[in-house]
Amino acid sequence: MNRQAEVTNTPIEDSTNRLHERKPLCSMGGAIAFALVGIGAGLLTRSQFLLFDGYYSLISVVLSFASYSAARFMAANDWKRFPYGKQMVEPLVVAIKHAAILVVVLGAAVTATVSVLAGGREVAMGGAVIYAALSTLTCFLFYRRLTTSRGSRETGWGLTKAEASQWLMDTYISAAVLLAFGTALLLQRTGFMAAFIPYVDPIMVLGVSAAFLGMPLKGLRSAVRELLDMTPEGDVAVRLQRIVTRTEKEYRLQESFLRVSQGSGTLWIEIDFVVNKHSRIRGIPDQDAVRERVLRQVEKLGFEPWLTISFTGDRKWAI
What we know:
The chain is mostly helical. It has helices at 11-20, 25-45, 48-75, 89-117, 125-147, 150-154, 157-190, 200-227, 236-250, 284-299, and strands spanning 255-263, 266-274, 304-312. The protein folds into two domains: 11-227, Alpha-lytic protease prodomain-like (Up-down Bundle), CATH 1.20.1510; 236-317, Alpha-Beta Plaits, CATH 3.30.70.1350. Helices cover 66% and strands 8% of the residues.
């Protein structure tokens, strides 16, 4: 029995629909402009940190558009061409997204390390401070615009809220950069700790790279596990095995085999029961009763199951 994710009202569709909510144009345009200005400011001030910030922001916008396009593709109803759904598209896109971010972060870290070993990097602190101040103000204004928009709260509030959170995080980061460059500029003007000033920029890059490194590694690992159809982590597999074991004992089944993998919000579950003359399975109605029982228990785990349950009297068909 194939219990596939329903066409409507499923966690997969809900998450896809949230991605389909129209992304605020001001946020998308602001993110692109913010990234380009950051790259330009980094080139003018010779700041590796500003360059890293600009490239990271630009890649994030491109990858967000890729995610949006993938969501539209997944939402299209095309069961004849894709009888098992399109759930594998999501971990594929996620894997590419996190791999790209990982390359940017590692590249920035390597470049910063080379600068530190070479004695630091001279940065036009005045220009860097001006950019950081404008960046902090701009990010905060975009955050306020998104959170105070009445229309955003009525339609597409889920995605708008996520965008607002991203602009708030950018505000905090920009404020931290402003503080760092401002302190460095003050030290430069006073001549105090002058030898340390060339190291400010690459050290900030190393710090942010270290802070950002965990996110793409974790996301890439999770996406690869889904692409390889690996058993889900945590206690999901253990709880499923308990359900199968209880069912096996109640219906006096000879043996059972459980195979499970996780993709997006779906659990792909295959259960093979081996029956014998002592089993309480006498026909199709009994088999359907077992399927319904297992399904009700599996749905309590919080996933949308794609459930296949088979019965056989010959063990070779279950292995």
